[in-house]
Amino acid sequence: MARAKIALIGAGQIGGTLALLAGLKELGDVVMFDVAEGIPQGKSLDIAEASPVLGFDATLVGTNGYEAIEGADVVIVTAGVPRKPGMSRSDLLDINLKVMQQVGAGIAKFAPDAFVICVTNPLDAMVWALQKASGLPTHKVVGMAGVLDSARFRYFLADEFNVSVEDVTAFVLGGHGDDMVPLVRYSGVAGIPLPDLVKMGWTSQEKVDAIVDRTRKGGGEIVNLLKTGSAFYAPAASAIEMATSYLRDKKRLLPCAAYLTGQYGIDDLYLGVPVIIGANGVERVVEIELDAHERAMLDKSIASVKELVGECQKIAPSLGA
Ligand code: A3D
């Protein structure tokens, strides 16, 4: 059977890491596209030259032309600019929205059957714009944020409990931002929910609250440390986990920014919710019970996402409906 083809749109920090991880996991052949000349070509060649040492077989190609992504099975989009000092949120939205329009047109023309994972920020608005611009079915276009946010939550909890990260499960709902909703009740160690672990004396409520807060601000913590650029190892690993579930039909239940059609009382909006990803893309949106406090937090997060999408609709009315 032929290898799968993975197209990476954006060959920056996350794009390069995605290519390396796709190679290491032998997910398929990789095409890296970027508007910057030489960067995708150089990174692809560098990783290809590592393949004999690392022991994987994959063809890696760098390109500045969309035709090279033709027939891709998976497209992961990290193209865009980061927010720089002095740039307003609207300026960033304006620039990255134009990028999503270009990328969406490229995908529509050359890879209309692909499973598309958007990583570009502001995530919940950009995945919405990318789906509208590409016209691909909504179950084939998702955003990566929840896997990363949950991974951060899991790592902090494993560190607190001194247990394997593998035994910690955690749930994060809502938009990707400071008002994301880490769900304490649905998180725990090997099936023991966090509130029980507090009762068992493994930790205190104050420490759980601090971990929830650190999870919400996880992206900013890395930005402050790096000073230039934002997190890229964990974001790339998270997008690769989603791509793997699709390519191998694993039917993982992962929190992703998915298009809602009434679930959680929301219509025509992308929001971070648990979904099952298999060979058909988003095969199911899982609706979990929320208590009043959790619902209130989710509503706040929904309001922020709606505001961002509203701004996109103003800037690019053609994407509107
Ligand atoms: P960076 O290293 O700047 O890479 C972005 C790449 O996009 C650069 O190589 C640019 O040349 C390229 N690019 C710009 N415009 C275009 C275009 N029109 N077509 C194709 N390529 C283009 O950034 P990064 O890799 O660190 O991050 C990529 C994106 O991911 C940013 O928007 C980040 O904010 C976002 N991000 C999201 C998360 C989430 O959890 C959602 C986490 C971390 C980063």
From TrEMBL:
Superkingdom assignment: Bacteria
Keyword annotations from UniProtKB, A to Z: NAD, Oxidoreductase, Tricarboxylic acid cycle
Enzyme class: oxidoreductase
Cited SUPFAM superfamilies: LDH C-terminal domain-like, NAD(P)-binding Rossmann-fold domains
Gene Ontology molecular function terms on file: L-malate dehydrogenase (NAD+) activity
Signal sequence, start to end: none
Domain Lactate/malate dehydrogenase C-terminal as annotated: residue spans: 148-307
Binding site for NAD(+): 10-15, 34, 96, 119-121
Residues forming the catalytic site: 176 (proton acceptor)
EC number: 1.1.1.37
Name of a matching Pfam family: Ldh_1_N
Ranges for domain Lactate/malate dehydrogenase N-terminal: 5-143
Catalyzed reactions: (S)-malate + NAD(+) = oxaloacetate + NADH + H(+)
UniProt binding sites for substrate: 83, 89, 121, 152
Protein purpose: Catalyzes the reversible oxidation of malate to oxaloacetate.
Family: Belongs to the LDH/MDH superfamily. MDH type 3 family.
Protein name from the UniProt record: Malate dehydrogenase
